[in-house]
Write a structure and sequence with these properties.
267 residues; alpha+beta; Glutaredoxin; six-stranded mixed β-sheet; two-stranded antiparallel ribbon; 6 helices; 14 strands; 36% helix; globular
Length: 267
């Protein structure tokens, strides 16, 4: 149906044909929808670009460093100190003792003064962490090179059921500790061993002659003057079957760490 328009000037109305109609403008609501869709698409593109940029930055950002333990030797990295649980201890004279080593040699701690002593507490019947520490000691001895002559590696027996010289000798041979020229695995009467455990704060819980002893595993670093300086806490991982192990890389790292601490005290 043709539309009726009033002519300007107030004349009589005229008839306008469909071909002469003015084209209709787009509805305001439709136009707003198109503008909104365009803006939304542009926003999505900008957001995607920002996400890509953030991911790229995070991928290239170095991981946050752990807080460095206070007082550890500067030669020992923060990550290595953390692996070893390495901490300084109050400087004091290391508790003295006189015991017998795997060579049946009766020896006093005071006789070792003038050398750095790396001291651990071991069970010669152990199938758990003690063999791992033994491997770390051997690795440390090799890392020391010519400086090894200034370092003593030693252990005190914690197993009252296996306290003979033969027991500590067999363990030393089995775990290559005998390859360290200045290695001493000390043993003796149970009462004498207990006094040493107490002096160094080592908790010992025997569980019978055929079981590993549950005990504190600590490595003491004793300086040339016979003073305690550092303490480390050996560790182990376990297989699904319950066997203790450490990856070779961690054993090597422990050996390197022990050598670095010993070197810092021997200098």
């Amino acid at each position: 149906m043709p539309s009726i328009q009033a002519e300007e000037g107030g004349g009589a109305p005229g008839v306008v044909s469909p071909d002469e109609e003015t084209p209709a403008r787009p509805a305001p609501l439709a136009r707003r929808r198109r503008l909104l869709a365009s803006a939304l698409a542009a926003g999505i593109l900008v957001l995607a670009a920002v996400i890509v940029l953030v991911v790229a930055i995070r991928q290239h950002r170095p991981p946050p460093t752990a807080e460095r333990p206070s007082g550890v030797p500067s030669s020992v990295s923060t990550s290595l100190a953390d692996l070893m649980g390495l901490t300084p201890v109050p400087v004091r004279a290391a508790p003295g003792f006189t015991l017998t080593d795997q060579h049946s040699q009766r020896l006093a701690m005071s006789a070792l003064r003038g050398k750095v002593i790396v001291l651990e507490f071991m069970d010669p019947h152990c199938t758990d962490i003690c063999p791992l520490v033994s491997a770390e000691f051997v690795a440390a001895y090799r890392d020391l090179g010519p400086l090894a002559s200034k370092v003593v590696f030693a252990a005190v027996n914690v197993n009252p059921y296996h306290a003979t010289v033969r027991d500590v000798t067999l363990f030393s041979d089995e775990h290559q500790l005998a390859s360290i020229p200045d290695w001493h695995f000390f043993t003796g009467p149970v009462a004498s061993l207990q006094a040493v455990w107490h002096g160094y704060g080592i908790a010992v819980q025997p569980r019978g002659p055929n079981a590993d002893v549950v005990h504190t595993s600590s490595v003491y670093f004793i300086d040339l003057q016979g003073r305690e300086r550092y303490l480390a806490a050996p560790m182990a991982d376990y297989t699904a079957a319950g066997a203790a192990y450490l990856p070779p890389g961690q054993i090597a790292a422990w050996g390197r760490g022990i050598a670095l601490v010993a070197r810092s005290l021997a200098a």
